[in-house]
Protein backbone atom coordinates (compact mmCIF):
# COMPACT_ATOMS: atom_id res chain seq x y z
CA UNK A 1 0.00 0.00 0.00
CA UNK A 2 1.65 3.20 -1.15
CA UNK A 3 -0.14 6.08 0.49
CA UNK A 4 1.56 9.30 1.54
CA UNK A 5 0.35 11.09 4.63
CA UNK A 6 -1.15 14.55 4.20
CA UNK A 7 0.95 17.52 5.11
CA UNK A 8 0.75 18.40 8.79
CA UNK A 9 -1.84 21.09 9.54
CA UNK A 10 -1.73 23.69 12.25
CA UNK A 11 -0.38 22.73 15.64
CA UNK A 12 -3.89 22.94 17.10
CA UNK A 13 -5.11 19.91 15.16
CA UNK A 14 -2.10 17.85 16.21
CA UNK A 15 -2.87 18.70 19.84
CA UNK A 16 -6.48 17.61 19.34
CA UNK A 17 -5.30 14.32 17.84
CA UNK A 18 -2.98 13.76 20.81
CA UNK A 19 -5.75 14.54 23.30
CA UNK A 20 -8.12 12.21 21.53
CA UNK A 21 -5.58 9.41 21.36
CA UNK A 22 -4.67 9.73 25.02
CA UNK A 23 -8.06 8.58 26.22
CA UNK A 24 -8.39 5.93 23.53
CA UNK A 25 -5.03 4.47 24.59
CA UNK A 26 -6.36 4.16 28.14
CA UNK A 27 -9.55 2.55 26.86
CA UNK A 28 -7.79 -0.09 24.82
CA UNK A 29 -5.04 -0.66 27.36
CA UNK A 30 -7.77 -1.57 29.81
CA UNK A 31 -9.80 -3.64 27.32
CA UNK A 32 -6.86 -5.70 26.08
CA UNK A 33 -5.58 -6.12 29.62
CA UNK A 34 -8.99 -7.39 30.69
CA UNK A 35 -9.37 -9.66 27.64
CA UNK A 36 -5.95 -11.23 28.19
CA UNK A 37 -6.47 -11.52 31.94
CA UNK A 38 -9.86 -13.16 31.30
CA UNK A 39 -8.06 -15.95 29.45
CA UNK A 40 -4.95 -16.27 31.59
CA UNK A 41 -5.94 -15.12 35.10
CA UNK A 42 -9.59 -14.29 35.81
CA UNK A 43 -10.86 -17.76 34.91
CA UNK A 44 -8.57 -19.13 37.63
CA UNK A 45 -8.83 -16.55 40.44
CA UNK A 46 -12.40 -15.17 40.25
CA UNK A 47 -14.39 -18.30 39.45
CA UNK A 48 -14.79 -21.75 41.02
CA UNK A 49 -12.60 -24.52 39.55
CA UNK A 50 -14.11 -26.84 36.95
CA UNK A 51 -13.16 -30.11 35.26
CA UNK A 52 -14.10 -28.56 31.91
CA UNK A 53 -11.16 -26.33 30.89
CA UNK A 54 -13.43 -24.15 28.73
CA UNK A 55 -16.10 -23.47 31.39
CA UNK A 56 -14.10 -20.95 33.51
CA UNK A 57 -12.86 -19.24 30.34
CA UNK A 58 -16.42 -18.83 29.08
CA UNK A 59 -17.46 -17.51 32.52
CA UNK A 60 -14.63 -14.96 32.41
CA UNK A 61 -15.63 -13.94 28.87
CA UNK A 62 -19.22 -13.43 30.07
CA UNK A 63 -17.97 -10.80 32.55
CA UNK A 64 -15.97 -9.39 29.64
CA UNK A 65 -19.21 -9.13 27.66
CA UNK A 66 -20.85 -7.13 30.47
CA UNK A 67 -18.69 -4.17 29.49
CA UNK A 68 -20.09 -4.31 25.97
CA UNK A 69 -23.66 -4.46 27.25
CA UNK A 70 -23.02 -1.29 29.26
CA UNK A 71 -21.41 0.55 26.36
CA UNK A 72 -24.64 1.51 24.54
CA UNK A 73 -25.97 2.96 27.80
CA UNK A 74 -22.79 4.99 28.16
CA UNK A 75 -22.98 6.00 24.53
CA UNK A 76 -26.56 7.24 24.91
CA UNK A 77 -25.89 9.18 28.12
CA UNK A 78 -22.59 10.69 27.04
CA UNK A 79 -23.90 11.45 23.54
CA UNK A 80 -26.93 13.30 24.91
CA UNK A 81 -24.81 15.62 27.02
CA UNK A 82 -21.93 15.66 24.51
CA UNK A 83 -24.16 17.02 21.73
CA UNK A 84 -25.43 19.63 24.14
CA UNK A 85 -22.43 20.68 26.23
CA UNK A 86 -19.41 19.62 24.21
CA UNK A 87 -17.12 16.70 23.46
CA UNK A 88 -14.22 17.89 25.62
CA UNK A 89 -15.98 17.94 29.02
CA UNK A 90 -17.58 14.53 28.56
CA UNK A 91 -14.25 13.03 27.52
CA UNK A 92 -12.67 14.25 30.74
CA UNK A 93 -15.38 12.50 32.77
CA UNK A 94 -15.01 9.31 30.72
CA UNK A 95 -11.26 9.00 31.17
CA UNK A 96 -11.55 9.33 34.97
CA UNK A 97 -14.28 6.67 35.11
CA UNK A 98 -12.27 4.24 33.00
CA UNK A 99 -9.12 4.79 35.06
CA UNK A 100 -10.80 4.47 38.45
CA UNK A 101 -12.64 1.26 37.60
CA UNK A 102 -9.51 -0.29 36.07
CA UNK A 103 -7.42 0.52 39.13
CA UNK A 104 -10.03 -0.94 41.47
CA UNK A 105 -10.06 -4.18 39.49
CA UNK A 106 -6.46 -4.63 40.54
CA UNK A 107 -7.58 -4.42 44.17
CA UNK A 108 -10.33 -7.05 44.03
CA UNK A 109 -10.27 -10.08 46.35
CA UNK A 110 -10.25 -13.52 44.73
CA UNK A 111 -12.86 -16.29 44.73
CA UNK A 112 -10.83 -18.19 47.31
CA UNK A 113 -11.11 -15.19 49.66
CA UNK A 114 -14.69 -13.94 49.32
CA UNK A 115 -16.42 -16.55 47.15
CA UNK A 116 -19.03 -15.32 44.68
CA UNK A 117 -18.55 -11.72 45.80
CA UNK A 118 -15.37 -11.77 43.68
CA UNK A 119 -17.09 -12.21 40.29
CA UNK A 120 -19.95 -9.96 41.44
CA UNK A 121 -17.56 -7.08 42.18
CA UNK A 122 -15.72 -7.76 38.93
CA UNK A 123 -18.98 -7.49 36.99
CA UNK A 124 -19.90 -4.23 38.77
CA UNK A 125 -16.58 -2.60 37.88
CA UNK A 126 -16.76 -3.97 34.37
CA UNK A 127 -20.18 -2.35 33.97
CA UNK A 128 -18.83 1.04 35.05
CA UNK A 129 -15.94 0.62 32.62
CA UNK A 130 -18.39 -0.15 29.85
CA UNK A 131 -20.44 2.97 30.49
CA UNK A 132 -17.33 5.16 30.37
CA UNK A 133 -15.91 3.47 27.28
CA UNK A 134 -19.30 3.77 25.58
CA UNK A 135 -19.03 7.53 25.82
CA UNK A 136 -15.32 7.73 25.14
CA UNK A 137 -15.05 6.54 21.54
CA UNK A 138 -17.68 8.78 19.95
CA UNK A 139 -16.37 11.92 21.63
CA UNK A 140 -12.75 11.10 20.85
CA UNK A 141 -13.17 10.51 17.13
CA UNK A 142 -15.56 13.45 16.70
CA UNK A 143 -13.14 15.78 18.41
CA UNK A 144 -10.69 15.06 15.60
CA UNK A 145 -13.16 14.65 12.72
CA UNK A 146 -14.79 18.03 13.42
CA UNK A 147 -11.40 19.79 13.49
CA UNK A 148 -9.94 18.02 10.43
CA UNK A 149 -10.02 19.38 6.83
CA UNK A 150 -12.56 17.66 4.60
CA UNK A 151 -9.96 16.48 2.09
CA UNK A 152 -7.91 14.64 4.72
CA UNK A 153 -10.53 13.75 7.33
CA UNK A 154 -10.04 10.02 6.75
CA UNK A 155 -6.36 10.28 7.66
CA UNK A 156 -6.62 12.52 10.72
CA UNK A 157 -9.73 10.88 12.14
CA UNK A 158 -8.04 7.48 11.89
CA UNK A 159 -5.43 8.42 14.51
CA UNK A 160 -7.73 7.75 17.47
CA UNK A 161 -8.20 4.31 15.88
CA UNK A 162 -4.42 3.91 15.78
CA UNK A 163 -4.49 4.41 19.53
CA UNK A 164 -6.11 0.97 19.75
CA UNK A 165 -2.89 -0.92 18.97
CA UNK A 166 -0.93 1.51 21.15
CA UNK A 167 -3.15 0.72 24.12
CA UNK A 168 -2.91 -2.98 23.33
CA UNK A 169 0.83 -2.62 22.88
CA UNK A 170 1.22 -1.09 26.33
CA UNK A 171 -0.91 -3.83 27.87
CA UNK A 172 1.07 -6.50 26.03
CA UNK A 173 4.39 -5.04 27.19
CA UNK A 174 3.19 -4.91 30.81
CA UNK A 175 1.86 -8.48 30.74
CA UNK A 176 4.91 -9.74 28.87
CA UNK A 177 7.32 -8.22 31.39
CA UNK A 178 5.29 -9.47 34.35
CA UNK A 179 4.82 -13.00 33.01
CA UNK A 180 8.49 -13.26 32.02
CA UNK A 181 9.95 -11.82 35.24
CA UNK A 182 7.66 -13.58 37.71
CA UNK A 183 7.04 -17.22 38.37
CA UNK A 184 3.65 -18.52 37.17
CA UNK A 185 2.55 -18.74 40.80
CA UNK A 186 3.56 -15.16 41.61
CA UNK A 187 1.97 -13.80 38.43
CA UNK A 188 -1.28 -15.60 39.19
CA UNK A 189 -1.21 -14.57 42.85
CA UNK A 190 -0.44 -10.84 42.64
CA UNK A 191 1.65 -9.95 39.58
CA UNK A 192 -1.32 -9.47 37.24
CA UNK A 193 -2.66 -6.69 39.51
CA UNK A 194 0.26 -4.39 38.67
CA UNK A 195 -0.96 -3.96 35.10
CA UNK A 196 -4.32 -2.67 36.31
CA UNK A 197 -2.73 -0.29 38.81
CA UNK A 198 -0.44 1.20 36.15
CA UNK A 199 -3.48 2.56 34.30
CA UNK A 200 -3.47 5.48 36.75
CA UNK A 201 -0.33 6.89 35.09
CA UNK A 202 -1.88 6.86 31.61
CA UNK A 203 -5.13 8.36 32.92
CA UNK A 204 -3.31 11.26 34.59
CA UNK A 205 -1.42 12.10 31.40
CA UNK A 206 -4.55 11.78 29.26
CA UNK A 207 -6.66 13.97 31.53
CA UNK A 208 -4.00 16.71 31.57
CA UNK A 209 -3.69 16.72 27.77
CA UNK A 210 -7.45 17.01 27.38
CA UNK A 211 -7.56 20.16 29.49
CA UNK A 212 -5.50 21.93 26.81
CA UNK A 213 -7.90 21.60 23.85
CA UNK A 214 -11.32 22.96 22.90
CA UNK A 215 -14.30 21.84 20.82
CA UNK A 216 -14.32 22.51 17.07
CA UNK A 217 -15.78 25.80 15.77
CA UNK A 218 -18.53 23.93 13.87
CA UNK A 219 -19.71 22.36 17.12
CA UNK A 220 -19.55 25.66 19.00
CA UNK A 221 -21.78 27.23 16.34
CA UNK A 222 -24.25 24.34 16.57
CA UNK A 223 -24.22 24.61 20.37
CA UNK A 224 -25.19 28.26 20.06
CA UNK A 225 -28.11 27.35 17.78
CA UNK A 226 -29.32 24.66 20.18
CA UNK A 227 -29.41 27.26 22.94
CA UNK A 228 -31.24 29.89 20.85
CA UNK A 229 -33.57 27.90 18.57
CA UNK A 230 -36.11 25.42 19.90
CA UNK A 231 -36.34 23.71 16.52
CA UNK A 232 -32.69 22.57 16.66
CA UNK A 233 -33.08 19.29 18.53
CA UNK A 234 -30.51 16.68 19.44
CA UNK A 235 -30.10 13.32 21.18
CA UNK A 236 -30.54 9.61 20.43
CA UNK A 237 -34.31 9.72 19.86
CA UNK A 238 -33.92 12.55 17.38
CA UNK A 239 -31.22 10.75 15.40
CA UNK A 240 -33.28 7.53 15.33
CA UNK A 241 -36.24 9.52 14.05
CA UNK A 242 -34.41 11.56 11.42
CA UNK A 243 -31.52 9.30 10.37
CA UNK A 244 -32.56 5.65 10.85
CA UNK A 245 -30.72 4.58 7.69
CA UNK A 246 -27.49 6.11 8.95
CA UNK A 247 -27.77 4.32 12.28
CA UNK A 248 -28.55 0.95 10.68
CA UNK A 249 -25.73 1.35 8.17
CA UNK A 250 -23.28 2.22 10.93
CA UNK A 251 -24.35 -0.89 12.85
CA UNK A 252 -23.93 -3.08 9.78
CA UNK A 253 -20.48 -1.66 9.05
CA UNK A 254 -19.44 -2.29 12.61
CA UNK A 255 -20.64 -5.90 12.82
CA UNK A 256 -17.91 -7.94 11.07
CA UNK A 257 -15.16 -5.49 11.99
CA UNK A 258 -15.94 -5.85 15.68
CA UNK A 259 -16.20 -9.65 15.56
CA UNK A 260 -13.03 -10.02 13.51
CA UNK A 261 -10.99 -7.92 15.90
CA UNK A 262 -11.88 -9.95 18.96
CA UNK A 263 -11.32 -13.16 17.08
CA UNK A 264 -7.83 -12.02 16.12
CA UNK A 265 -6.62 -10.53 19.40
CA UNK A 266 -8.76 -12.23 22.06
CA UNK A 267 -9.99 -15.63 20.93
CA UNK A 268 -6.70 -16.37 19.17
CA UNK A 269 -5.00 -16.26 22.60
CA UNK A 270 -7.46 -18.87 23.85
CA UNK A 271 -7.05 -20.99 20.72
CA UNK A 272 -3.26 -20.84 20.75
CA UNK A 273 -2.90 -21.48 24.49
CA UNK A 274 -5.62 -24.12 25.01
CA UNK A 275 -5.83 -25.86 21.62
CA UNK A 276 -2.38 -25.38 20.06
CA UNK A 277 -0.64 -25.48 23.49
CA UNK A 278 1.66 -22.50 22.92
CA UNK A 279 3.06 -20.87 26.05
CA UNK A 280 1.80 -17.50 27.28
CA UNK A 281 5.05 -15.55 26.82
CA UNK A 282 5.36 -16.65 23.20
CA UNK A 283 1.79 -15.63 22.38
CA UNK A 284 2.18 -12.21 24.03
CA UNK A 285 5.47 -11.66 22.23
CA UNK A 286 3.82 -12.31 18.87
CA UNK A 287 0.96 -9.97 19.79
CA UNK A 288 3.52 -7.26 20.52
CA UNK A 289 4.80 -7.26 16.94
CA UNK A 290 1.28 -7.51 15.54
CA UNK A 291 0.19 -4.37 17.40
CA UNK A 292 3.21 -2.45 16.07
CA UNK A 293 2.12 -3.39 12.55
CA UNK A 294 -1.45 -2.31 13.22
CA UNK A 295 -0.36 1.07 14.54
CA UNK A 296 1.41 1.73 11.23
CA UNK A 297 -1.31 0.38 8.93
CA UNK A 298 -4.31 2.23 10.41
CA UNK A 299 -3.36 5.84 9.49
CA UNK A 300 -2.08 4.69 6.09
CA UNK A 301 -5.45 3.07 5.45
CA UNK A 302 -7.17 6.23 6.66
CA UNK A 303 -5.20 8.19 4.07
CA UNK A 304 -6.18 5.62 1.44
CA UNK A 305 -9.88 6.33 2.12
CA UNK A 306 -9.20 10.00 1.35
CA UNK A 307 -7.65 9.03 -1.97
CA UNK A 308 -9.86 6.24 -3.37
CA UNK A 309 -12.97 6.67 -1.23
CA UNK A 310 -14.47 5.23 1.94
CA UNK A 311 -16.65 2.65 0.19
CA UNK A 312 -14.19 0.52 -1.87
CA UNK A 313 -11.76 0.16 1.03
CA UNK A 314 -14.52 -0.99 3.36
CA UNK A 315 -15.91 -3.46 0.82
CA UNK A 316 -12.45 -5.01 0.47
CA UNK A 317 -12.24 -5.40 4.25
CA UNK A 318 -15.67 -7.07 4.43
CA UNK A 319 -14.83 -9.57 1.67
CA UNK A 320 -11.44 -10.48 3.16
CA UNK A 321 -13.02 -10.98 6.59
CA UNK A 322 -14.77 -14.05 5.20
CA UNK A 323 -11.49 -15.33 3.73
CA UNK A 324 -9.18 -14.78 6.72
CA UNK A 325 -10.22 -17.69 9.00
CA UNK A 326 -9.68 -20.28 6.25
CA UNK A 327 -6.12 -19.02 5.92
CA UNK A 328 -5.37 -18.19 9.56
CA UNK A 329 -6.46 -21.26 11.52
CA UNK A 330 -4.33 -23.71 9.51
CA UNK A 331 -1.44 -21.32 10.10
CA UNK A 332 -2.21 -21.26 13.84
CA UNK A 333 -2.24 -25.06 13.93
CA UNK A 334 1.38 -25.21 12.80
CA UNK A 335 2.41 -23.59 16.13
CA UNK A 336 5.33 -22.10 14.18
CA UNK A 337 5.92 -18.53 15.47
CA UNK A 338 6.42 -17.11 11.96
CA UNK A 339 3.18 -18.63 10.68
CA UNK A 340 1.24 -17.54 13.76
CA UNK A 341 2.44 -13.94 13.60
CA UNK A 342 1.65 -13.78 9.87
CA UNK A 343 -1.87 -15.05 10.53
CA UNK A 344 -2.42 -12.40 13.22
CA UNK A 345 -0.96 -9.64 11.05
CA UNK A 346 -3.18 -10.65 8.14
CA UNK A 347 -6.19 -10.45 10.44
CA UNK A 348 -5.22 -7.01 11.69
CA UNK A 349 -4.60 -5.81 8.14
CA UNK A 350 -8.09 -6.91 7.08
CA UNK A 351 -9.52 -5.35 10.23
CA UNK A 352 -7.72 -2.09 9.48
CA UNK A 353 -9.39 -1.82 6.07
CA UNK A 354 -12.68 -1.40 7.92
CA UNK A 355 -11.59 0.13 11.21
CA UNK A 356 -9.46 3.01 9.93
CA UNK A 357 -12.23 4.68 7.95
CA UNK A 358 -15.00 4.35 10.53
CA UNK A 359 -14.58 7.76 12.23
CA UNK A 360 -14.74 9.65 8.93
CA UNK A 361 -17.54 7.50 7.53
CA UNK A 362 -19.75 7.74 10.60
CA UNK A 363 -19.03 11.44 11.14
CA UNK A 364 -20.17 12.11 7.59
CA UNK A 365 -23.47 10.27 8.15
CA UNK A 366 -24.92 12.70 10.71
CA UNK A 367 -25.23 16.47 11.21
CA UNK A 368 -23.37 18.17 14.04
CA UNK A 369 -26.43 18.60 16.25
CA UNK A 370 -26.80 14.83 16.67
CA UNK A 371 -23.46 13.47 15.46
CA UNK A 372 -22.31 12.24 18.89
CA UNK A 373 -25.63 10.40 19.35
CA UNK A 374 -25.63 8.82 15.88
CA UNK A 375 -22.01 7.75 15.93
CA UNK A 376 -22.08 6.39 19.50
CA UNK A 377 -25.38 4.55 19.14
CA UNK A 378 -24.48 2.89 15.85
CA UNK A 379 -21.02 1.96 17.08
CA UNK A 380 -21.76 0.82 20.62
CA UNK A 381 -25.07 -1.03 20.27
CA UNK A 382 -23.52 -3.34 17.69
CA UNK A 383 -20.89 -4.38 20.22
CA UNK A 384 -23.54 -6.22 22.25
CA UNK A 385 -24.26 -8.73 19.47
CA UNK A 386 -20.82 -8.63 17.86
CA UNK A 387 -17.55 -8.28 19.77
CA UNK A 388 -18.96 -8.97 23.23
CA UNK A 389 -20.12 -12.47 22.37
CA UNK A 390 -17.58 -13.36 19.67
CA UNK A 391 -15.03 -14.96 22.06
CA UNK A 392 -17.86 -16.77 23.89
CA UNK A 393 -19.37 -18.15 20.68
CA UNK A 394 -15.98 -19.13 19.28
CA UNK A 395 -14.92 -20.86 22.50
CA UNK A 396 -18.24 -22.71 22.70
CA UNK A 397 -17.97 -23.81 19.05
CA UNK A 398 -14.43 -25.04 19.60
CA UNK A 399 -15.46 -26.99 22.68
CA UNK A 400 -18.53 -28.47 20.95
CA UNK A 401 -17.06 -29.42 17.57
CA UNK A 402 -13.31 -29.62 18.32
CA UNK A 403 -12.74 -27.84 15.00
CA UNK A 404 -12.08 -24.33 13.72
CA UNK A 405 -14.38 -24.73 10.70
CA UNK A 406 -17.63 -23.70 12.49
CA UNK A 407 -15.77 -20.63 13.77
CA UNK A 408 -14.76 -19.75 10.23
CA UNK A 409 -18.36 -20.08 9.04
CA UNK A 410 -19.42 -17.78 11.87
CA UNK A 411 -17.03 -15.15 10.51
CA UNK A 412 -18.33 -15.64 6.98
CA UNK A 413 -21.85 -14.87 8.18
CA UNK A 414 -20.66 -11.72 9.90
CA UNK A 415 -18.77 -10.66 6.78
CA UNK A 416 -21.90 -10.97 4.64
CA UNK A 417 -23.84 -8.62 6.93
CA UNK A 418 -21.10 -5.98 6.78
CA UNK A 419 -20.68 -6.42 3.03
CA UNK A 420 -24.36 -5.57 2.50
CA UNK A 421 -23.96 -2.43 4.63
CA UNK A 422 -20.77 -1.41 2.79
CA UNK A 423 -22.35 -1.86 -0.64
CA UNK A 424 -25.32 0.31 0.40
CA UNK A 425 -23.01 2.99 1.81
CA UNK A 426 -23.17 6.46 0.28
CA UNK A 427 -19.72 7.69 -0.72
CA UNK A 428 -18.90 10.85 1.25
CA UNK A 429 -15.18 11.34 0.55
CA UNK A 430 -14.36 15.06 0.55
CA UNK A 431 -17.74 16.30 1.78
CA UNK A 432 -17.66 19.17 4.28
CA UNK A 433 -19.43 18.92 7.62
CA UNK A 434 -20.95 22.33 6.90
CA UNK A 435 -22.63 20.87 3.80
CA UNK A 436 -24.06 18.03 5.90
CA UNK A 437 -25.44 20.57 8.37
CA UNK A 438 -26.90 22.65 5.52
CA UNK A 439 -28.73 19.67 4.06
CA UNK A 440 -30.00 18.71 7.52
CA UNK A 441 -31.32 22.25 8.00
CA UNK A 442 -33.14 22.21 4.65
CA UNK A 443 -34.70 18.78 5.17
CA UNK A 444 -35.58 18.79 8.85
CA UNK A 445 -35.12 22.09 10.67
CA UNK A 446 -36.45 24.61 8.13
CA UNK A 447 -39.80 22.83 7.62
CA UNK A 448 -40.22 22.62 11.39
CA UNK A 449 -39.45 26.32 11.76
CA UNK A 450 -41.98 27.18 9.06
CA UNK A 451 -44.61 25.06 10.76
CA UNK A 452 -43.93 26.70 14.12
CA UNK A 453 -44.17 30.20 12.62
CA UNK A 454 -47.39 29.32 10.81
CA UNK A 455 -48.96 28.13 14.05
CA UNK A 456 -47.84 31.30 15.80
CA UNK A 457 -49.23 33.59 13.09
CA UNK A 458 -52.88 34.67 13.74
CA UNK A 459 -55.22 33.51 10.98
CA UNK A 460 -52.69 31.13 9.49
Descriptive report:
The protein is mainly α and 460 residues long. It has one domain: Growth Hormone, Chain: A (Up-down Bundle). Helix content is 81%, strand content 0%. The chain contains 20 helices and no strands. Helix 1 runs antiparallel to helix 5 (117-145). It is globular.
Salient structural properties:
single chain; mainly alpha; Growth Hormone, Chain: A; 20 helices; 460 residues
In brief:
The protein is mainly alpha-helical and 460 residues long. 81% of the residues lie in helices and 0% in strands.
Our measurement of the CA-to-CA distance between the termini, rounded to an integer number of angstroms, reads: 62 Å
User: What composes the largest sheet?
Assistant: none
Strand content: under 5%
Stretches where pLDDT is under 50 for at least 5 consecutive residues are: none
The CATH class designation is Mainly Alpha
List the domain count as a whole number.
1
What is the CATH homologous superfamily assignment? MFS general substrate transporter like domains
General shape: globular
Secondary-structure-based class equals: mainly alpha
Please identify, by name, the CATH architecture.
Up-down Bundle
How many individual β-strands?
0
Amino acid sequence: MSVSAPAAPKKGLRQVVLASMAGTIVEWYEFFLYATAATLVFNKVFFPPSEDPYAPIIAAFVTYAVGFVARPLGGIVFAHFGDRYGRKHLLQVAIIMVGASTFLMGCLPTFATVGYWAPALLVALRFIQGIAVGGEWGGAVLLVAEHAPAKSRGFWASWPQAALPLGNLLATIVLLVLSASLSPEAFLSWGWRIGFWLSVVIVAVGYYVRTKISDAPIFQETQRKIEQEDEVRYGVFEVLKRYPRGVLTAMGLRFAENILYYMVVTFSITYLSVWVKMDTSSILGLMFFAHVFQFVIVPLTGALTDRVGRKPVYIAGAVLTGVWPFVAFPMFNTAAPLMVILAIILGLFVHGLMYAGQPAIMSEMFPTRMRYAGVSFGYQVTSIVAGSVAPIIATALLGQFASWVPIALYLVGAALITLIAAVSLRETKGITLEEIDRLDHERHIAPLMQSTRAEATPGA
